[in-house]
């Protein structure tokens, strides 16, 4: 049956706009690559105008800020690109992994602790993934409920107490370790970015995550087990959150169920600032890394200039809105 | 349509199952961790009459302090034949207010209240009085104007703790012109605010020669405090900083790590804090932390029960006029000299 | 041929009509959950009912914001900024000495926040999830800045306390306002043209445009409603507690979502109801009060509410049907696996 | 060639030199059209001829680039509201109802009568009832649209148009989703409305319908008006010739002589929503066609066979070099050499925002990767070859699939499956929305596939296409096989009569 519907009509429109896209408007260019430029500018400006910013110690601090949240963010990028908004439960995941690492390693040694943490991460990833991928339930609500459950269990079993690592253990050494001004934690972030970047761009799984984000139906009809893809995306996030938990625990050599508050939305903020679209499909792990750096540098600079917490929050909010506004406007321009 | 109804049915059944499970959970609870509601068998052991008491706390075993606060409290309650129902509002003023309504409605013999937000509990107090239920305040006192509505208070004086820490700072500095940095608790949290003000105002009064160069929140968190401290050091310039204060030991531990990370020796700095916890006490002994203020969670928990017991047995009456209506927790200053003293053995 | 033709079933029997009406409702799960909760609670914690004014208070506390949020959800949009809005408006009302003026100012602030949200969503064209995420941070910051990062006591404490007292029987102003808000919004989305059109905006936006419905204006209305209601909640909390807490609303956002979802509101929009949200809020409220009374510790409560929420989302009839279906057709195939060589 | 259109009453609506471009592509090119009171005016044309675009301009949903629409002598401002005010009502082709609102509300969507903003439900229902009464359809006014059958929704759409008391009623393929009985009813109804002085613009592919009820016919091809004539002065053949142009006609004869081999796929007792027990076989090198009216359950059938949708009963056996496998679900079907070119190319066939090679990789991951890591070089070569094999123009595999025209997009979809060298391929409406040139190429491609020994199952509503491609045609009606036509016994008449299931609606 003939069906020259609006979609067909739009198709032509898209075709045209797409072809004219070859000569991109400046605004578009900014939307595409702006974050890199802005980050560079921000760093440059900070070096020039903010005393002490360029000092090695401070660079270390920036890295310390960036590392844990960054590791969470690069992982969560998978969930975002797969078009499932975000994983709220990273808050519970990071804390759980941190507590398990310290508490268990004190009793049964590090290897077992890591194994236990991995197990916990797997459970989180699979529960979230199955509920979203197989039951087609909304990711926001699913991960919201797993946050409740996860934190509840953690607090129940940890009794909310602080767990201390041994003053001189492997964990401690790692937490203090640095390569020049770069703390190991930041190296981990870097390595995670490289690995996950590779997974997202070069492996079948990463490819499927992206194509799922672009068009779920077409991906499924190509013979893909889409539920598995979603589960995979949540598993990657869970593992990243676990590593973040380890880094956080090592850094402070303590762990408590109340740590990592607000990591959910802060990680998402970094991802969005990096230019990854919450509609799925578009985005990259590298962008997330840059987004994290941008946010960390900004916070660092605000603290250095003695700005109070309230204003810091406002700045972050404003930043998010501007980032997406630029993106939205550029898309409008492209339509013309 | 049929399937959807099946779906609903399953949902319902599972919900019921879940709810019943919860019932069990509450029962098993004391076994799992010795906190939460004590089961009646405890009170039975005491013979004598038993009292029903609601304890409205803003934290429970989701926080280190609460975790060590509860067991002594429950032990004492069992001993005095008090049947406790404990709630935890997670420092949400609205939630606690609602829990207060629940408690008043339950018409217990007494209410132990640990204000989540001192400014917001006036209505709760009035409701309790209207219902003739004695209220004993624990851990964080109410505002002066509300004190007459309570039977008494046992616990620390958060402002005083800040002040005490400041006094130690003044002694340490001993008249010298020094600059220090300040790490505060969770932004907007009332204990954080009180301790902060206590410290600041006492410094201003007793030793104006100490200048607070910068302050940032550390959110009761060691890792966040370390970064915040380090950044403040950068901001004001390490050379200008001779001291550091944090509103609790976890945070000062972070601050001390920040110094170490720069290859600085904490011993060269004037450092004071509050808590004398498992984290802080070793630092005092090692000499890195010059002084902290001991806060005993067990004292706090026990005396909350003692207090409400007095109120219920008429030893103390409405208002704060009669003696014994205010039990201030001894907040001994802990320094390297008495750090190993059993009387200040860390509890959390 | 006949001048009229009969297509599709038409129920005439009373039972049939009833079945039809039920089939048309979206609150199914909410009702089941509520029933389950009420039954269990009736046995375990009858106090929940004997002191129902308390339960009412808690329901109002959870539900009010959820009502406003639902208006936005019906259009397939989200508003993550409600909690922060609540905090800001609370601080505003406390900062202004004259209570009346303060209340008005706070409510105006709420509406303005709604306008800003809607501007980003409808005019700039940002996904509401992100736009309001930004506002979530910005407004929380604003609350801290305005309150100087500490609780703000209201000037006329007595008035505040008076506000907390029951008016008629167990009905406190909070409960009354909640009921009024419910009625108002319910009437709006079920009787008022503009409100009904929320379903069109959420259910089939293209059709809404084609039918000449001012979609953008509707989106503005929706966000203004949720902003206003959130502000209202902030005002009530501040007055009842006699002080504003810049950190307020920590649990509000999630609780509201839970209530809306359990009530059968479809996050993609176009399907759901205010009644559903009321039911969801009631179920949650009663559950919480019961758990509080039985002294269950917070961690257990969380595990619980989380579990129920997880159930609520995974048992969406549509999802369930899909899962059951695929399972069945899998069985269909597996059951008949053949030995190689057979056939052909 | 414009013989005088039959005259009666005065002109109600007139389009003058309408031009509508999308980017560079001209969808409607200088088309004029005038309709008189009480006239039923047919607008016919191939897919993509610009019919729907023209109608959207008339209905004020999209704005023309040049030319004007004149209603009752006054030029019409663009905008849905204006055109509705001017008494123009469009019955959309893709249903534009709100699923969770009631029938009554949908009928008056956006125009519900109000007092102080409150909907006057009594009045609302009265108007809705009247509208339904007028088209003589009875349905519960408070029923949610989401619970109505597709056909019923179509009538609600029409009622909605009627409810606005339009002077001009535009229907875009209204019978697409209707059974013959319903169609017949609709046509009588339209004649009744016209008799009462309503002007109707009727878009359809079904020439018999046009012949039966229309006074005048305007034929569009590639966005241009190729003919306007009184229906009485033309013939079905004449209309078809003008619609399709000659070249396709010639193709029609080019049947291939098939030599079917062994059975590749056997489906037995297939049941699913809309499918009521179908058995069929497809042999190697054979092209089996599924004919029938839209809504007959053809798409549902093929999706149930390959497991893309769940089936409630039935069993599908796939034979590969003597071994028989029962297909459990969609994925197992794909693993066993089944390929599926879906009906909805843009939503189901392609990830438009991804590159051609990405789309091709989607189905051939295993071959193009080792240990889960994708081999870029191989991917490039692989997709380049396929792109050229299916004659993608230009064969730039880095380009976004969305940048290609409908025909090329369809070629990409086919290419991504060819990569798997399937021995059984399902094509659902393979040339919908595809231009004539590409259409011919795709036909060649499909024939070539069959000649190579692939078993092919084609669903098509485009009769000439079906007749040209298929060796065997199963005509589906009401989810069952109404009849099977071999080789020469298949022609437009036999297929249609089987599809309609009764004496064909005819002039």
Rg calculated over all Cα atoms of chain B? 23 Å
Residue runs with pLDDT of under 50 for 5 or more positions of chain C: 335-344
Instruction: Find the biggest chain interface.
Output: B-C, 60 and 68 residues
Q: Which CATH architecture of the largest domain in chain B is right?
A: 3-Layer(aba) Sandwich
Q: What's this entry about, in short?
A:
Chain B is an alpha/beta fold and 348 residues long. Chain B has helices at residues 2-32, 41-45, 64-80, 93-106, 122-130, 158-173, 190-206, 222-236, 249-261, 280-285, 297-313; strands at 51-57, 82-88, 110-113, 135-138, 152-155, 178-184, 210-217, 243-246, 270-272, 291-293, 326-328, 333-335. Chain B is built from 11 helices and 12 strands.
Describe, in plain words, how this protein is organized in 3D.
The complex is a heterotetramer of chains A (336), B (348), C (344) and D (507). Chain A has 14 helices and 4 strands. With 336 residues, chain A is mostly helical. Chain A has one domain: ABC transporter involved in vitamin B12 uptake, BtuC (Orthogonal Bundle). The two termini of chain A are 32 Å apart. With 348 residues, chain B is an alpha/beta fold. Chain B has 2 domains: 161 residues, Response regulator (Rossmann fold); 137 residues, Rossmann fold. Chain B is built from 11 helices and 12 strands. In chain B, the strands form 3 sheets. A 6-stranded parallel beta sheet of chain B has the order 2-1-3-4-5-11, with helices on both faces. Chain B has a 4-stranded parallel beta sheet with strand order 7-6-8-9, sandwiched between helices. In chain B, strands 10-12 form a two-stranded antiparallel ribbon. In chain B, strand 6, helix 7 and strand 7 form a beta-alpha-beta unit. The longest helix of chain B has 31 residues. The N terminus of chain B is likely disordered. Helices cover 74% and strands 2% of the residues of chain C. Chain C has 16 helices and 3 strands. A two-stranded antiparallel sheet of chain C has the order 2-3. In chain C, helix 5 runs antiparallel to helix 6 and helix 8 crosses helix 12. Chain C is globular and about 70 Å long. The C terminus of chain C is likely disordered. Chain D has 507 residues and is an alpha/beta fold. Chain D has 3 domains: 236 residues, Rossmann fold; 177 residues, P-loop containing nucleotide triphosphate hydrolases (Rossmann fold, 3-Layer(aba) Sandwich), CATH 3.40.50.300; 67 residues, no CATH class. In chain D, strand 1 and strand 2 form a beta hairpin. In chain D, helix 9 packs parallel to helix 17, helix 13 crosses helix 14 and helix 14 packs across helix 15. Chain D is globular. The N terminus and C terminus of chain D are likely disordered. The chains are: A mainly alpha (336), B alpha/beta (348), C mainly alpha (344), D alpha/beta (507). Chains in contact: A-B, A-C, A-D, B-C, C-D.
